[in-house]
Structure formats: structure tokens, C-alpha cells
Amino acid sequence: MQFIPRIFTILAFLLVSISSLAQINQTDVDDFVRIYASQNHLALEDIEAIVSKATFQPSIIDKMTKPAEQTMTWTRYRGLFLTDARIDEGIKFWAANETTLRQVSKQTGVSEEVILGIIGVETFFGTRAGSYSVLDALYTLAFGYPKRSAFFKAELGKFLELCTRENLDPLSIKGSYAGAMGYCQFMPSSYLAYAKNFDQQGSTDLMNNVDDAIASVANYIQVHRWQPGKPVVTKAIVTDSAKLPLAKQSVKPSESIKTYQNMGFQTADGSSTNEQVTLQEFVLDEGSEYWFGFNNFYVITRYNHSPLYALAVYQLGEAIKTKKAN
């Protein structure tokens, strides 16, 4: 009687395997390989040899449908990144890379603490850069995630281009489940567009060269119009005359603080400015808190479009700076 459970186990395995394979249209893969090879004047068999080694990973599809930024309160999201362990790691990272951080910040105008905040949130200062095969991740999303298939096909193409340009092994690179790589978690297109070689020698390596990573984060933020010396956010206070609930606001600054004052929101320090801001609501486990975001807040959201992300980056950088000074 022992053979019955074994038969069911084998059948279940086969059904899962067939289901997984069914989510990849091989004709779609073949068309991509053929077009990419033709457009880039490469040997078809060389591209086939790489792409054929990619494996469909169903768990990646599951993760793509449940991003933390859409399911977490600010209380929980902040709790992931504003920890003593991450702040202490940031202080160590700053001490180990102080010269590079100072030089890059001076050249770009991007504050050291914002560079630290981004690397800290993205990869815990390079210690958690991802364990997924980037090739598998991009393959899975390009051919098994119809909602964003066009985007990930383009990223897969950029990944192949990147590996050729920087002499990288496409089979060995690890990253996030979305295909982001290195200390700063650049997608392949961002790697090609914004990666910066710190000493301008050799290849630009964001997986292993921390100087390149620091320079690249700052370059990305600078190109997206960071304003040196300008504020990022300031806390907003809700007065008795506030009109709640607050309608969803664009993350891009478009109103003056005076406009929001007329709606019943004041700055925590009572200050005012003619600069345009956005007013963002951050939902807590109980209640909400509100922050005025300036242009530099918007710039951080160009790295990741979530306001939760931008505020976490800012607060982590400030927490590291404060604890380092004490």
C-alpha cells in the first residue's frame, strides 16, 4: 500500500512542473532572442546559450504582486529600516568610506547622509544585496508576468548589454527578485545610464566596488535635480481647522505651504516658505502623521516612487548622522 502516496507525490510534482512551464511561451522567448541578436548584431547561438540557462521562478511572481510599500503602514515600514542595527552598520560604513563619501558629496552636492540612507535602505550597506539570479528574475518577469512584460523584456536586453559592456558573467550575478543589482540596487537600464566609475579606471562594478556604488548613487540623485543645501521634508501639524481626510496629493511639489496652511496644516516649527511642497499622509498603525516634502523629497522618490521609501531614506540618514555625532 506504500506505493499510493508515492504515486500521488509524483503526479503532484508533474502537475506543478507542467503548470510552471505553461506560464512561459517558448515562442515569445525565441522571438526575443532572435530580435535582440539581430538588433545588436550578435550571433543568435550566443544569446540562445545564455537565455536557455534561465529558469522560471514562480515565487518571483508572488513577490511582485505584494510589494511592501503597498501593504505596510508607515509604523511597520519605518520599523524595518530605522533599527539600531541598521543605524550602527551605517556608522561603520561611514567610517570605512568617509573619504569617498566626502569627496563624492562635494563633487555632486548630494549630502552624505542621503547617500548613506539610500544604500542603507536598499541593501543594509551592501550586506543584503539579494540572492536571486538576476538572469532568472528578469527571464521570469519578462515572459511570465504579462502585466509588465514589455518593461522586463527591455531590462533583460539591457542586462545582456551590460554584461557585454562590463565583462560580467550573466549566470553568476545575484540581486533582488525584480532584477536589481549591487549595493545601490540598480536595474540594468539604470546601471547603464547612471553607474559611475569612481576612479575612472577599469569597469564600473556596483556589486563589489563600494566607491563605484557611492559615486553612482550620488550621480543618480544629482541627475534628477537634487538641490544642494535645500531641505528634504519638514513635519506638518494638523490644526483643528484641518480638512480631513486629506485627498491624495501628488508626490511632486506643486503648492506653497501657505496653501496648505489655509487647509489647516502648519509646519511643526511655525515656519513658512514660498517654495513649492507636497503634503504627504503617512498612515500609522493608529492614526496618521503628515510631512511637507520639498523638491529633494521628490528627487529621492525618483529612485523608488514610494513616499514611504523616501521618508525612510531621509530618516535613516539623519539618524546615522545624529548618532555618529554623539
Automatic annotation (TrEMBL):
Could you tell me which residue ranges the Transglycosylase SLT domain spans?
27-317
Highest classification ranks of the organism: Bacteria, Pseudomonadati, Bacteroidota, Cytophagia, Cytophagales
Tell me the keywords, alphabetical order.
Answer: Signal
Q: Which protein, by its recorded name, is this?
A: Lytic murein transglycosylase B
Q: Check the record and name the CDD domains matching this protein.
A: Slt35-like
Q: Name one Pfam family in it.
A: SLT_2
The record's section on InterPro entries has: Lysozyme-like_dom_sf (IPR023346), Lytic_transglycosylase_MltB (IPR011757), MltB-like (IPR043426), SLT_2 (IPR031304)
* Signal sequence extent: 1-22
PANTHER family documented for this protein: MEMBRANE-BOUND LYTIC MUREIN TRANSGLYCOSYLASE B (PTHR30163:SF9)
